[in-house]
Amino acid sequence: MASGKWRLPFLIAAIALVAVLAVSCGEEEEEEGPTATTAPTGERIEGGSLTVATLEVDSLDPHYSSFSQDISLARMLWRSLYTLDYDNVPQPAMAAELPEISEDGKTYTVKLRDGLKWSDGDDLLAEDFVMGIYRTCNPVHAGEYQYLLTNIIGCDDHFGNEAGYDESLENLIGAEAIDDLTLEFALNEPQPTFPIILSLWMAFPAPVHLLPESSDPWPEPAPGAPAALAYNGPYILTEYQPGDHATLEPNPNWIGEVKPTLDTLSLRFIDDFAVSNNAYRAGEVDFSNADEAQLVAIVPEFEATGEYVKVEIPITIGLQMQLEAPPLDNLDVRLALARAFDREQLNQVVYGGGHTPTTSWIPLADGGDLPEAFEDVIGFDVEAAKEHLADAGYPDGEDFPVLSILVRDTPTYRGVAEFLQESFRTALNIDTEVEVVDAPTRSARYTAEDFELFPGGWQHDYPDPENWILGQFETGGSLNNYSCSNTEIDELAAEARFNPNNEERLQQYKDINRLIAENVCGVAPYLHFANHYLIKPYVVGMEENATGQDSVMAGDWIAEAWGRSQ
Amino acid sequence: MWGPLKGPHIPPWPNASTPAYNGRTVIGYFVRRILWMIPLLWAVATVTFFLMHAVPGGPFDREKELPPAVLANLEAKYNVDKPLITQYGFYLWNLAQGDLGVSFKTNRPVADVIREGLKVTAQLGVIAFLYAVAFGMTLGVLSALNQNRLPDYFGVFFATVGTALPNFIMATFLVVIFSVQLGWFDVLGWELGNYRKMVLPVLALGTLSAAYIARITRASMLEVLAQDYVRTARAKGLKEYVVVLRHAVKNSMIPILTVIGPIFAFLVTGSFIVERIFAINGIGRHFVQAVFDRDYGLIMGTTLFYAAVVAFANLAVDILYAVVDPRIRYR
Amino acid sequence: MAERARTVERIEELGEVAARRERGLWSDAFRRLTRNRFAMVALVILATVAVVVLLGNNFDAVRRYDPRVQDYSVVQAGPSASHFFGTDQLGRDNWSRVLQGTLISLQVGLGVQVLVLAIGLLVGGIAALGGRLLDNVLMRLTDLTYAFPDLLFIILVRAALSGRDWPVIGEPVPQMIFAIAFVSWVTIARLVRGQMLSLKERDFVLAAQASGASPLRVVFQHMLPNTLGPITVAITFGIPIAIFAEAVLGFIGFGLPPPTASLGRLVSDGYSFVQVNIWVVVFPAAAIGLLMLCFTFLGDGLRDALDPRQR
User: Fold this and answer.
1) Based on the structure, what is the number of domains in chain C?
2) What ipTM was reported for this prediction?
3) Between B and C, how many residue pairs show a Cβ–Cβ distance under 8 A?
4) CA C265 to chain centre
5) Is there a contact between A58 and B108 if contact means CB atoms under 8 Å apart?
6) Which CATH number is C148's domain given?
């Protein structure tokens, strides 16, 4: 029933972006000259076609959409000034080199490469990139990722304008074309991570020669869309059949180092992974996401031939608890619940062993801790769980109220809920009620903080621990739906947010990570997720480039590297 | 599965005001029926509109919350921030001018979405309908004519198994056995003229209806064959096939007509399940997906479309009924 | 004076004859039913299933395992001596789950039809006997309900009712029953109306009215029993349809909440794992099929038995 796989999560508001970020990122930025974003590719033949199963896009507009599959397609068709390489470091793409930053860090000057062209032959100029920024900041389009541009002067003012589009406000936005090949950005605050922002989809250029006004509607996903657009990415869209497929062909004017070798790339829209798996088996698609519920069968079926590929992704799921709903406000109760279920078994039984059990909220790769780091604090231990429950005043589950576990109606979520329900019953002798609802209801209730126990989690947007904490765990944070409120965490977060000393900063986030576990402050983590792909042996470039950066398909952040070996 | 859930369409006859009692008002009656559809559709639109806003969750409720500024702009874009009555008014006003609104998910006109999906679904639906009627009736007639002999057992077997198996089970097994294992047919999609993509979806969609029709036809034929006037026709020395075709089949069609309406509506508006399992881009999936997405625009559009199809199908059946039922005509 | 008394006597006699004829008709019908082999077999099977299911849900000896208990050492096992129907992905015993599911499916099926009968009789009866205006209004109401897409309505009704702690209707199974019944009462209502309308003119009804019986008595004692024939048949056919509808709802994600599982929910749960363990789908699907077949044959038998043409 998955409509839209992992919706890319939202960065927190201005605060997070204003942060003086990872010195690690900053260090690499000082390397000399642009480094090539070469991706390893096996031997690719010239020509051939690939059919890839994916989810249908809701919008072709990169300045509006937030869904993973939309962004995935947008990246094949357009590119921005910079692009992130393997190490998530921005490298020049449409820009000629890294930006020139003013003394006060608030002005960025970017020079474009020479001879850039749109796929239809028109010149790709600075004004096209400015138009992209204007469109994202335009309230008429209600761009869901607009807040990432909050640091650009005037963007928030225009976007928040209640009266709608206002030309005067738009002209005040800090994005300007100095000349045909030079762009200047004016920021509110210094932001070393700004080049990362300039690699993302909301900064993709908009074809001014086709859509002259920023309020012009972007063509919707319909048969007429391909002809109404121009592209500067590795591929162009030649055909779009709603609900069925989209066909892409190489862009003759693509200036990237890695060139597409395929004749056509076909994206086949299939909602149900079980269906796309069957299509994969029958040879009708060359790539599919594996159906999680059937991993138990899929892994033995495809492992031997190397067609099954598992990629760790930066997602942590845990049992979230509403701290304002008694008795969950009692730490002993939360500890009892956290220690009453076996993560290993959950992983095995519900997900066929496809993910990684964990007790750490922030993954190690993002500056967190090892999965087993807090095993003795919140790990599976029935005796300890019983003790905690007794300490809380409910020996052997006596008089414990019936809590509800709120989940979406998918096989895996139902399995998780039933597993938890049973674990609580056998370990703690308490009854829980499972509420299975559809996705919008679940989201609405989560936002309204109307839940008690809620299996859910977070996917990072960029590889830094602050993305896992800020807004989610401080008292009153905008994403803190579980009402975590801990003075130590608040203090550490306030310090770490603007801490120029990177080592100290990272340590502070690790401390917060530990505090979250020790206090079960809102969530008891249980799994780090992985993506599971089925890739035919003759496909080149997907498995090699599969990283945590993938949106929906393996290596879809660098689709120009895809090809066939025969 | 929704057609049979509603049950057969029982025409609103006979009653004291049956128009057929007086030939002159038959046309008038049908004109009135068509005119009646307008308030009917209005009622459906109204009930749908207010009910759908009463359900928790909205079109912009995402896994991760949207920032307030974005939400405000989105709601303004789709007029969801206005009071309910105002939104209702806008909708009716547009509807009166033939504008079905836009899908909140893709911003495409609902009319376009329905039209595109309808092309595929209608093809699949009509072919499944023809299969159901042709196969079902033939089977039923043969069964009845050969009561308690081999063809009858086969017919009854098919009829009972066909109605006992949920269609998503049947579809899954068909795909796994015939597409994946044997490779005789394709897993994905629908293409008119390409048998590899046509056979399984038609079977999956139409078998339940075929079995149902077979059962009814058989029962009805058996009844008719035992009637006096059939025996009379036989006694008169008419050839067997004339007896069968002219009298028996025509008269046994009457009960079948009561189910053809809803079956047609069901098949043509598409089965969500079959379209999902075969990844067919028809409108069937939109019916359910729109509700899941709380896509208010598309919900309204598909509901009205469905109501219109059902109303017309029933009207067509009532007309057929009037044509076919001898009792009504004679009066 | 004497003449009038004799007339009244005569009318009373007619009334009695009519009543006797009705009773005779019922026993006639019963005899015809018992002679129908398919229907009898179906009835026996249904009775057996009912007994096994009722026992199974109350006695551990029959069901052998608690359907909620998850045993992770025997996940996705096929049928065996220890687990008749195998186990599902959480290690729960399928046999006990199917027993529980059958009970729930039967509850849903029967519950829906009882409610449908009640609503249908009410609406159809009032439409037939309440005069032209009421008739028109109610028939327009049935048109509206008929034109409404079922799924949307069921979702909306359930969404509107769930989460509120109302008695009875707050429970998931009654909610499901209510929701399905709400979209399926139209046929019965129209049937009842049609029957009542034609019965209104029949001799024995007129006789009963003439002999001074109150309108209520006429309806309940004379008319209603005669409408029951086709209605019983429709109801019997409606039970498997309701079970089916619940199964489809379960499949698309609007079934009953865990851990209770109707047969439909069992099938749709198992459907995701069909490549892994086919038994988890086969047994509940077979159970649905069996119930549907039995009710269908029973319905056929009832219809033949109660067929007015065979009087």
Assistant:
1) 1
2) 0.81
3) 141
4) 19
5) no
6) 1.10.3720.10
